[in-house]
Amino acid sequence: MSVDFSTDPTAQGFFAPMRFEADIEDCETQGEIPPELNGSFYRTCLDRRYPPRYADDTPYNADGAVDMFRIANGNVDFRTRYLRTARYTAERAAHRALFGRYRNRLTSDPSVAQLSHNTGNTTPLLFNGRLLCLKEDSPPMAVDPNTLETLCEWDFDGQMTARTFTAHPKLDPRTGELIAFSYEARGDATYDIAVFIFDAQGKLKRQWWFKSPVLSMMHDMAITDRHIIIPTTGMVTSRERLDAGLIHWTYDSSVPCHVAILPRDGSGEVRWFQGTPDQAMLLHTTNARTEGDRVILDAPVASANFHPYFPNADGSGFDVAGVSPNIRRWTFDLSSTRTDWDEEILFDGIRATSMVRIDDRFLGQPFRYSYILAVDPKMPFDRARGGNLSVRVANAWWRFDHANGTIDRAYVGSTHGLAEPQFVPRHRDAPEGDGWVIGVANDFSQMRSELVIVDAQQMQRGPVARVKLPFRLHTQVHGWWVAG
Ligand code: V55
Ligand code: FE
Hints:
Elements: E1 22-24, E2 28-31, E3 39-46, E4 64-72, E5 75-82, H1 86-94, E6 123-127, E7 130-134, E8 141-143, E9 150-153, E10 170-171, E11 178-183, E12 192-198, E13 204-211, E14 222-223, E15 227-231, E16 235-236, H2 239-243, E17 250-251, E18 258-263, E19 271-274, E20 287-291, E21 294-301, E22 326-333, E23 342-346, E24 352-358, E25 369-374, H3 383-386, E26 396-401, E27 407-410, E28 416-418, E29 422-425, E30 435-443, E31 448-455, E32 463-468, E33 475-483
Antiparallel strand pairs: 1-5, 2-32, 3-4, 3-33, 4-5, 6-7, 7-8, 8-9, 10-11, 11-12, 12-13, 14-15, 15-18, 16-17, 18-19, 20-21, 21-22, 22-23, 24-25, 25-26, 26-27, 28-30, 29-30, 30-31, 31-32
Protein backbone atom coordinates (compact mmCIF):
# COMPACT_ATOMS: atom_id res chain seq x y z
CA MET A 1 0.00 0.00 0.00
CA SER A 2 1.55 3.29 -1.06
CA VAL A 3 1.49 6.56 0.82
CA ASP A 4 -0.77 8.75 -1.33
CA PHE A 5 -2.52 11.82 0.04
CA SER A 6 -3.72 13.05 -3.35
CA THR A 7 -7.29 11.82 -2.87
CA ASP A 8 -7.69 13.32 0.61
CA PRO A 9 -9.32 16.75 0.14
CA THR A 10 -8.46 17.74 3.74
CA ALA A 11 -4.72 17.21 3.10
CA GLN A 12 -4.02 19.62 0.23
CA GLY A 13 -1.98 22.83 -0.07
CA PHE A 14 -1.17 24.30 3.32
CA PHE A 15 -3.06 21.42 4.92
CA ALA A 16 -0.90 18.68 3.41
CA PRO A 17 1.06 16.90 6.13
CA MET A 18 4.79 17.76 6.40
CA ARG A 19 5.89 14.31 7.68
CA PHE A 20 9.19 15.76 8.83
CA GLU A 21 11.16 16.79 11.88
CA ALA A 22 13.45 19.81 11.87
CA ASP A 23 15.78 22.05 13.85
CA ILE A 24 16.68 25.56 12.75
CA GLU A 25 18.99 27.76 14.79
CA ASP A 26 18.98 31.53 14.48
CA CYS A 27 15.92 31.76 12.29
CA GLU A 28 15.68 34.38 9.57
CA THR A 29 14.01 37.44 11.10
CA GLN A 30 12.59 40.71 9.76
CA GLY A 31 12.09 43.60 12.15
CA GLU A 32 13.24 43.52 15.73
CA ILE A 33 12.32 40.84 18.25
CA PRO A 34 11.49 42.79 21.42
CA PRO A 35 14.39 42.22 23.85
CA GLU A 36 11.96 41.53 26.74
CA LEU A 37 10.42 38.63 24.82
CA ASN A 38 12.11 35.63 26.40
CA GLY A 39 10.64 32.16 26.51
CA SER A 40 9.27 29.27 24.52
CA PHE A 41 6.19 29.20 22.33
CA TYR A 42 4.88 25.65 21.89
CA ARG A 43 2.27 24.49 19.41
CA THR A 44 0.55 21.15 18.99
CA CYS A 45 -0.24 20.37 15.38
CA LEU A 46 -2.01 17.93 13.09
CA ASP A 47 0.27 15.97 10.79
CA ARG A 48 -0.76 12.62 9.41
CA ARG A 49 2.08 10.21 8.98
CA TYR A 50 -0.13 7.95 6.82
CA PRO A 51 -3.29 8.53 4.78
CA PRO A 52 -6.42 7.78 6.83
CA ARG A 53 -8.10 4.37 6.55
CA TYR A 54 -11.45 6.08 5.87
CA ALA A 55 -12.01 8.97 3.49
CA ASP A 56 -14.60 10.57 5.80
CA ASP A 57 -12.24 10.78 8.78
CA THR A 58 -11.51 14.11 10.46
CA PRO A 59 -8.14 15.91 10.48
CA TYR A 60 -8.56 15.91 14.30
CA ASN A 61 -7.53 12.25 14.05
CA ALA A 62 -4.12 13.14 12.60
CA ASP A 63 -0.86 12.28 14.36
CA GLY A 64 0.35 14.96 16.76
CA ALA A 65 3.46 17.02 16.19
CA VAL A 66 4.83 19.57 18.62
CA ASP A 67 6.68 22.73 17.60
CA MET A 68 8.84 24.99 19.75
CA PHE A 69 9.96 28.54 19.01
CA ARG A 70 12.61 29.37 21.61
CA ILE A 71 13.06 33.13 21.85
CA ALA A 72 16.00 34.69 23.72
CA ASN A 73 17.92 37.95 23.31
CA GLY A 74 16.34 38.75 19.98
CA ASN A 75 17.14 35.31 18.55
CA VAL A 76 14.77 32.49 17.67
CA ASP A 77 15.48 28.76 17.39
CA PHE A 78 12.85 26.42 15.98
CA ARG A 79 12.32 22.70 16.57
CA THR A 80 9.57 20.29 15.58
CA ARG A 81 9.04 16.62 16.48
CA TYR A 82 6.35 14.03 16.03
CA LEU A 83 4.88 12.69 19.24
CA ARG A 84 6.08 9.10 19.56
CA THR A 85 2.74 7.70 20.60
CA ALA A 86 2.02 3.98 20.69
CA ARG A 87 -0.10 4.61 17.63
CA TYR A 88 2.69 6.38 15.75
CA THR A 89 5.15 3.60 16.54
CA ALA A 90 2.78 0.80 15.49
CA GLU A 91 1.77 2.51 12.25
CA ARG A 92 5.37 3.35 11.39
CA ALA A 93 6.30 -0.31 11.77
CA ALA A 94 3.37 -1.29 9.52
CA HIS A 95 4.08 1.50 6.98
CA ARG A 96 0.36 2.41 6.95
CA ALA A 97 -2.51 3.62 9.11
CA LEU A 98 -3.86 0.98 11.48
CA PHE A 99 -6.25 3.15 13.47
CA GLY A 100 -9.62 3.79 11.87
CA ARG A 101 -12.23 6.51 12.27
CA TYR A 102 -11.85 9.15 14.95
CA ARG A 103 -12.53 7.66 18.40
CA ASN A 104 -14.03 4.49 17.05
CA ARG A 105 -11.75 1.60 17.91
CA LEU A 106 -14.07 -0.89 16.16
CA THR A 107 -12.87 0.56 12.86
CA SER A 108 -9.18 -0.07 13.56
CA ASP A 109 -7.03 -2.96 12.41
CA PRO A 110 -7.44 -5.86 14.89
CA SER A 111 -3.69 -5.80 15.53
CA VAL A 112 -4.04 -2.52 17.49
CA ALA A 113 -7.18 -3.40 19.45
CA GLN A 114 -5.30 -3.14 22.74
CA LEU A 115 -3.23 -0.05 21.88
CA SER A 116 -3.92 3.54 22.91
CA HIS A 117 -5.27 5.76 20.11
CA ASN A 118 -3.72 8.82 21.78
CA THR A 119 -2.36 11.41 19.35
CA GLY A 120 -1.67 14.23 21.84
CA ASN A 121 -2.44 16.66 19.03
CA THR A 122 -4.56 19.34 20.69
CA THR A 123 -2.94 21.44 23.46
CA PRO A 124 0.59 21.77 24.89
CA LEU A 125 0.87 22.85 28.53
CA LEU A 126 3.86 22.90 30.89
CA PHE A 127 3.08 21.46 34.32
CA ASN A 128 5.60 20.43 36.92
CA GLY A 129 8.50 20.14 34.47
CA ARG A 130 6.66 18.13 31.84
CA LEU A 131 5.26 19.43 28.59
CA LEU A 132 1.85 17.76 28.48
CA CYS A 133 0.50 17.29 24.97
CA LEU A 134 -3.19 16.75 25.42
CA LYS A 135 -5.96 14.99 23.49
CA GLU A 136 -9.39 14.81 25.09
CA ASP A 137 -9.86 11.11 24.32
CA SER A 138 -6.76 9.95 26.22
CA PRO A 139 -4.43 10.73 29.14
CA PRO A 140 -1.76 13.40 28.55
CA MET A 141 1.38 12.62 26.54
CA ALA A 142 4.42 13.81 28.53
CA VAL A 143 7.18 15.40 26.45
CA ASP A 144 10.60 16.80 27.38
CA PRO A 145 10.13 20.60 27.10
CA ASN A 146 13.69 21.10 25.77
CA THR A 147 14.33 18.21 23.39
CA LEU A 148 10.64 17.56 22.52
CA GLU A 149 11.38 13.89 23.04
CA THR A 150 8.26 11.91 23.96
CA LEU A 151 8.52 10.47 27.49
CA CYS A 152 5.33 8.49 28.11
CA GLU A 153 1.56 8.59 28.43
CA TRP A 154 1.24 10.29 31.82
CA ASP A 155 -1.25 9.42 34.57
CA PHE A 156 0.21 11.73 37.22
CA ASP A 157 2.04 8.87 38.95
CA GLY A 158 -1.07 6.72 39.00
CA GLN A 159 -3.25 9.41 40.58
CA MET A 160 -5.33 10.10 37.45
CA THR A 161 -7.47 7.00 36.94
CA ALA A 162 -9.82 8.24 34.22
CA ARG A 163 -9.43 6.87 30.68
CA THR A 164 -9.53 10.38 29.21
CA PHE A 165 -8.35 13.88 30.12
CA THR A 166 -9.46 17.25 28.74
CA ALA A 167 -7.29 19.14 26.28
CA HIS A 168 -8.16 22.31 28.21
CA PRO A 169 -7.26 21.97 31.87
CA LYS A 170 -6.83 25.25 33.75
CA LEU A 171 -3.66 26.34 35.52
CA ASP A 172 -4.77 28.65 38.31
CA PRO A 173 -2.32 31.60 38.18
CA ARG A 174 -2.92 32.38 41.86
CA THR A 175 -2.43 28.90 43.36
CA GLY A 176 -0.48 27.00 40.70
CA GLU A 177 -3.14 24.27 40.84
CA LEU A 178 -4.02 22.32 37.71
CA ILE A 179 -7.78 21.79 37.42
CA ALA A 180 -9.02 19.29 34.85
CA PHE A 181 -11.92 17.05 33.92
CA SER A 182 -12.45 13.85 31.95
CA TYR A 183 -15.57 12.87 30.03
CA GLU A 184 -16.36 9.39 28.76
CA ALA A 185 -14.09 8.90 31.72
CA ARG A 186 -14.70 5.15 32.09
CA GLY A 187 -14.33 4.47 28.36
CA ASP A 188 -16.13 5.05 25.07
CA ALA A 189 -19.81 5.99 25.37
CA THR A 190 -19.80 6.12 29.18
CA TYR A 191 -21.64 9.00 30.85
CA ASP A 192 -18.97 9.35 33.55
CA ILE A 193 -17.30 12.67 34.25
CA ALA A 194 -14.30 13.00 36.57
CA VAL A 195 -12.89 16.27 37.87
CA PHE A 196 -9.38 16.59 39.32
CA ILE A 197 -7.47 19.25 41.23
CA PHE A 198 -3.70 18.80 41.41
CA ASP A 199 -1.61 21.08 43.59
CA ALA A 200 1.37 22.92 42.07
CA GLN A 201 3.64 19.98 42.92
CA GLY A 202 1.39 17.58 41.02
CA LYS A 203 -0.24 15.92 44.03
CA LEU A 204 -3.92 15.06 43.59
CA LYS A 205 -5.81 17.24 46.04
CA ARG A 206 -9.44 16.47 45.27
CA GLN A 207 -11.48 14.49 42.76
CA TRP A 208 -15.14 14.08 41.87
CA TRP A 209 -16.92 11.42 39.82
CA PHE A 210 -20.47 11.93 38.56
CA LYS A 211 -22.71 11.29 35.54
CA SER A 212 -23.51 13.63 32.69
CA PRO A 213 -27.15 14.08 31.59
CA VAL A 214 -26.01 13.83 27.94
CA LEU A 215 -23.30 11.89 26.15
CA SER A 216 -21.65 14.83 24.42
CA MET A 217 -18.33 16.37 23.52
CA MET A 218 -17.12 18.54 26.40
CA HIS A 219 -14.13 20.28 24.94
CA ASP A 220 -13.33 23.02 27.44
CA MET A 221 -14.08 24.15 30.98
CA ALA A 222 -13.68 27.32 33.04
CA ILE A 223 -12.63 28.13 36.58
CA THR A 224 -13.15 30.98 38.99
CA ASP A 225 -11.50 31.49 42.37
CA ARG A 226 -14.36 29.40 43.85
CA HIS A 227 -15.98 27.34 41.10
CA ILE A 228 -15.39 24.86 38.29
CA ILE A 229 -17.66 25.15 35.24
CA ILE A 230 -18.10 22.42 32.62
CA PRO A 231 -20.52 22.80 29.67
CA THR A 232 -21.93 19.98 27.53
CA THR A 233 -22.63 20.50 23.83
CA GLY A 234 -24.93 19.29 21.05
CA MET A 235 -22.12 17.17 19.60
CA VAL A 236 -23.30 13.77 20.77
CA THR A 237 -22.50 10.08 20.44
CA SER A 238 -23.97 6.73 21.47
CA ARG A 239 -22.98 3.10 21.85
CA GLU A 240 -25.12 2.31 18.77
CA ARG A 241 -23.26 4.88 16.73
CA LEU A 242 -19.89 3.40 17.61
CA ASP A 243 -21.12 -0.16 17.05
CA ALA A 244 -22.24 0.92 13.57
CA GLY A 245 -18.62 1.90 12.80
CA LEU A 246 -19.33 5.61 12.47
CA ILE A 247 -17.13 8.57 13.35
CA HIS A 248 -17.56 9.36 17.06
CA TRP A 249 -19.67 12.53 16.87
CA THR A 250 -22.88 13.75 15.31
CA TYR A 251 -24.45 17.17 15.91
CA ASP A 252 -27.99 16.93 17.27
CA SER A 253 -29.62 20.36 17.06
CA SER A 254 -32.34 19.30 19.51
CA VAL A 255 -29.98 18.72 22.45
CA PRO A 256 -29.77 21.62 24.90
CA CYS A 257 -26.56 22.82 26.52
CA HIS A 258 -26.11 21.69 30.12
CA VAL A 259 -23.61 23.26 32.49
CA ALA A 260 -22.12 21.62 35.59
CA ILE A 261 -20.93 23.96 38.36
CA LEU A 262 -18.92 22.62 41.32
CA PRO A 263 -17.43 24.42 44.31
CA ARG A 264 -13.65 24.01 44.15
CA ASP A 265 -13.33 23.47 47.90
CA GLY A 266 -15.64 20.45 47.87
CA SER A 267 -18.16 22.25 50.09
CA GLY A 268 -21.19 21.32 47.97
CA GLU A 269 -22.54 18.99 45.32
CA VAL A 270 -22.25 19.41 41.58
CA ARG A 271 -25.15 21.48 40.31
CA TRP A 272 -26.50 21.06 36.76
CA PHE A 273 -28.08 23.90 34.80
CA GLN A 274 -30.00 23.39 31.56
CA GLY A 275 -30.03 25.87 28.69
CA THR A 276 -31.42 25.63 25.17
CA PRO A 277 -30.27 23.91 21.94
CA ASP A 278 -29.27 27.25 20.38
CA GLN A 279 -26.59 27.55 23.09
CA ALA A 280 -25.08 24.13 22.51
CA MET A 281 -22.32 24.72 19.95
CA LEU A 282 -19.34 25.79 21.96
CA LEU A 283 -15.75 24.64 22.15
CA HIS A 284 -13.72 27.15 24.16
CA THR A 285 -14.43 29.38 27.07
CA THR A 286 -13.03 32.92 27.29
CA ASN A 287 -12.94 33.30 31.09
CA ALA A 288 -15.17 33.17 34.16
CA ARG A 289 -15.46 34.71 37.60
CA THR A 290 -17.57 34.37 40.72
CA GLU A 291 -19.20 37.52 42.10
CA GLY A 292 -21.06 36.81 45.32
CA ASP A 293 -23.61 34.12 44.47
CA ARG A 294 -23.26 34.58 40.72
CA VAL A 295 -20.98 32.72 38.36
CA ILE A 296 -20.28 34.67 35.16
CA LEU A 297 -18.91 32.90 32.09
CA ASP A 298 -17.89 34.58 28.81
CA ALA A 299 -17.49 32.27 25.80
CA PRO A 300 -17.83 32.11 22.01
CA VAL A 301 -21.04 30.17 21.37
CA ALA A 302 -22.77 29.30 18.08
CA SER A 303 -26.24 27.94 17.41
CA ALA A 304 -25.34 25.39 14.73
CA ASN A 305 -22.68 22.80 14.01
CA PHE A 306 -19.31 24.33 13.17
CA HIS A 307 -17.41 21.06 12.73
CA PRO A 308 -17.55 20.16 9.02
CA TYR A 309 -16.23 16.65 9.76
CA PHE A 310 -18.93 15.67 12.22
CA PRO A 311 -22.27 15.17 10.42
CA ASN A 312 -25.60 16.63 11.47
CA ALA A 313 -27.93 14.11 13.10
CA ASP A 314 -30.91 15.34 11.06
CA GLY A 315 -29.12 14.51 7.80
CA SER A 316 -28.69 18.12 6.68
CA GLY A 317 -25.38 19.08 5.09
CA PHE A 318 -22.70 21.29 6.61
CA ASP A 319 -23.78 24.93 6.47
CA VAL A 320 -21.01 27.50 6.64
CA ALA A 321 -23.56 30.11 7.75
CA GLY A 322 -23.75 28.46 11.13
CA VAL A 323 -20.06 28.36 11.89
CA SER A 324 -19.37 31.76 13.44
CA PRO A 325 -19.97 32.06 17.15
CA ASN A 326 -20.75 35.30 18.88
CA ILE A 327 -19.43 36.13 22.33
CA ARG A 328 -21.99 35.42 25.02
CA ARG A 329 -22.01 36.15 28.72
CA TRP A 330 -23.83 33.55 30.81
CA THR A 331 -24.78 34.40 34.39
CA PHE A 332 -25.72 31.60 36.78
CA ASP A 333 -27.50 32.51 40.01
CA LEU A 334 -26.38 30.09 42.70
CA SER A 335 -28.59 31.69 45.36
CA SER A 336 -31.81 30.62 43.60
CA THR A 337 -33.20 27.23 42.58
CA ARG A 338 -33.27 28.30 38.92
CA THR A 339 -31.80 25.68 36.62
CA ASP A 340 -31.47 28.00 33.61
CA TRP A 341 -29.27 31.06 33.21
CA ASP A 342 -29.26 34.57 31.78
CA GLU A 343 -27.58 35.20 28.44
CA GLU A 344 -26.23 38.50 27.14
CA ILE A 345 -24.56 38.93 23.72
CA LEU A 346 -21.29 40.87 23.87
CA PHE A 347 -19.78 42.63 20.83
CA ASP A 348 -23.04 42.45 18.91
CA GLY A 349 -22.86 41.75 15.19
CA ILE A 350 -19.42 40.14 15.05
CA ARG A 351 -18.64 36.79 13.50
CA ALA A 352 -15.64 35.28 15.24
CA THR A 353 -14.16 31.81 15.60
CA SER A 354 -13.95 29.77 18.76
CA MET A 355 -10.15 30.23 19.02
CA VAL A 356 -10.02 32.67 21.91
CA ARG A 357 -7.36 33.34 24.56
CA ILE A 358 -6.80 35.77 27.39
CA ASP A 359 -3.87 37.04 29.42
CA ASP A 360 -3.60 33.81 31.43
CA ARG A 361 -2.49 35.68 34.55
CA PHE A 362 -6.17 36.71 34.86
CA LEU A 363 -7.68 33.25 34.47
CA GLY A 364 -10.64 32.83 36.79
CA GLN A 365 -10.63 36.50 37.79
CA PRO A 366 -12.12 39.77 36.55
CA PHE A 367 -10.40 40.60 33.24
CA ARG A 368 -10.60 43.11 30.46
CA TYR A 369 -9.18 41.75 27.21
CA SER A 370 -9.53 38.63 25.11
CA TYR A 371 -7.75 37.78 21.84
CA ILE A 372 -9.49 35.83 19.12
CA LEU A 373 -8.84 34.43 15.68
CA ALA A 374 -11.25 35.93 13.17
CA VAL A 375 -12.35 35.94 9.56
CA ASP A 376 -12.36 39.69 9.04
CA PRO A 377 -14.15 40.97 5.93
CA LYS A 378 -12.67 44.44 6.53
CA MET A 379 -9.12 43.18 6.02
CA PRO A 380 -7.78 42.79 2.46
CA PHE A 381 -7.45 39.17 1.45
CA ASP A 382 -6.07 37.91 -1.84
CA ARG A 383 -8.30 34.93 -2.57
CA ALA A 384 -6.41 33.91 -5.69
CA ARG A 385 -3.09 33.60 -3.86
CA GLY A 386 -4.32 33.32 -0.29
CA GLY A 387 -6.72 30.43 -0.70
CA ASN A 388 -10.27 30.73 0.46
CA LEU A 389 -11.25 32.31 3.71
CA SER A 390 -13.16 29.44 5.16
CA VAL A 391 -13.61 27.39 8.28
CA ARG A 392 -9.92 26.62 8.00
CA VAL A 393 -8.38 29.95 6.99
CA ALA A 394 -8.78 33.04 9.18
CA ASN A 395 -7.03 36.33 8.41
CA ALA A 396 -7.09 38.48 11.56
CA TRP A 397 -6.57 38.65 15.29
CA TRP A 398 -8.99 40.78 17.25
CA ARG A 399 -8.56 42.10 20.75
CA PHE A 400 -11.90 42.40 22.49
CA ASP A 401 -12.18 44.97 25.28
CA HIS A 402 -14.80 43.44 27.56
CA ALA A 403 -14.95 46.70 29.56
CA ASN A 404 -16.02 49.05 26.78
CA GLY A 405 -17.05 46.77 23.91
CA THR A 406 -14.42 47.91 21.42
CA ILE A 407 -12.40 45.71 19.05
CA ASP A 408 -8.79 46.28 17.90
CA ARG A 409 -7.72 44.38 14.80
CA ALA A 410 -4.37 42.99 13.66
CA TYR A 411 -3.63 42.00 10.12
CA VAL A 412 -0.37 40.55 8.86
CA GLY A 413 -0.71 40.31 5.06
CA SER A 414 -3.21 39.73 2.27
CA THR A 415 -1.91 36.23 1.51
CA HIS A 416 -1.60 35.17 5.15
CA GLY A 417 -3.79 32.86 7.18
CA LEU A 418 -3.36 32.96 10.95
CA ALA A 419 -3.37 30.45 13.79
CA GLU A 420 -4.61 31.01 17.35
CA PRO A 421 -3.25 34.18 19.02
CA GLN A 422 -1.06 33.84 22.12
CA PHE A 423 -0.80 36.75 24.56
CA VAL A 424 2.61 37.25 26.19
CA PRO A 425 2.95 39.83 28.99
CA ARG A 426 5.85 42.29 28.70
CA HIS A 427 7.00 41.39 32.22
CA ARG A 428 5.68 39.09 34.89
CA ASP A 429 4.14 42.10 36.68
CA ALA A 430 3.08 44.12 33.63
CA PRO A 431 -0.53 45.39 33.73
CA GLU A 432 -3.14 43.32 31.91
CA GLY A 433 -2.81 43.78 28.16
CA ASP A 434 0.75 45.19 28.22
CA GLY A 435 2.68 42.81 26.00
CA TRP A 436 2.52 41.04 22.65
CA VAL A 437 0.23 38.87 20.66
CA ILE A 438 2.28 36.22 18.91
CA GLY A 439 1.43 33.30 16.66
CA VAL A 440 2.03 31.59 13.36
CA ALA A 441 0.98 33.03 10.02
CA ASN A 442 0.90 30.93 6.87
CA ASP A 443 1.89 32.84 3.76
CA PHE A 444 0.09 31.12 0.89
CA SER A 445 1.96 33.17 -1.74
CA GLN A 446 5.32 31.69 -0.71
CA MET A 447 4.06 28.51 0.98
CA ARG A 448 6.12 29.49 4.01
CA SER A 449 5.17 29.98 7.63
CA GLU A 450 6.32 32.70 9.97
CA LEU A 451 5.99 33.58 13.62
CA VAL A 452 4.58 37.09 13.84
CA ILE A 453 4.86 39.38 16.85
CA VAL A 454 2.33 42.16 17.35
CA ASP A 455 2.25 44.80 20.08
CA ALA A 456 -0.98 44.00 21.96
CA GLN A 457 -1.64 47.70 22.56
CA GLN A 458 -1.05 48.61 18.92
CA MET A 459 -2.73 45.77 17.09
CA GLN A 460 -3.53 47.88 14.02
CA ARG A 461 0.20 48.46 13.38
CA GLY A 462 0.70 44.81 12.44
CA PRO A 463 3.81 42.79 13.19
CA VAL A 464 6.86 44.42 14.81
CA ALA A 465 8.81 41.31 13.80
CA ARG A 466 8.44 38.28 11.54
CA VAL A 467 10.42 35.10 12.09
CA LYS A 468 10.43 33.37 8.72
CA LEU A 469 10.79 29.65 8.33
CA PRO A 470 12.06 28.25 5.05
CA PHE A 471 9.06 25.90 4.82
CA ARG A 472 5.37 25.75 5.64
CA LEU A 473 4.26 24.35 8.94
CA HIS A 474 1.61 21.82 9.77
CA THR A 475 -1.82 22.90 11.01
CA GLN A 476 -1.77 24.17 14.58
CA VAL A 477 -4.52 23.38 17.01
CA HIS A 478 -3.46 25.25 20.18
CA GLY A 479 -0.35 27.03 21.48
CA TRP A 480 1.22 27.72 24.87
CA TRP A 481 3.75 30.23 26.15
CA VAL A 482 6.34 29.45 28.79
CA ALA A 483 8.28 32.49 30.04
CA GLY A 484 12.05 32.42 30.61
C1 V55 B 1 -11.51 19.66 18.84
C2 V55 B 1 -10.26 19.35 18.34
C3 V55 B 1 -9.82 18.05 18.45
C4 V55 B 1 -10.62 17.09 19.03
C5 V55 B 1 -11.87 17.43 19.52
O1 V55 B 1 -11.42 21.90 18.15
C6 V55 B 1 -12.31 18.72 19.41
C7 V55 B 1 -12.01 21.02 18.72
C8 V55 B 1 -7.72 18.51 17.44
O2 V55 B 1 -8.63 17.59 17.98
O3 V55 B 1 -10.18 15.83 19.10
FE1 FE C 1 -9.53 23.41 21.87
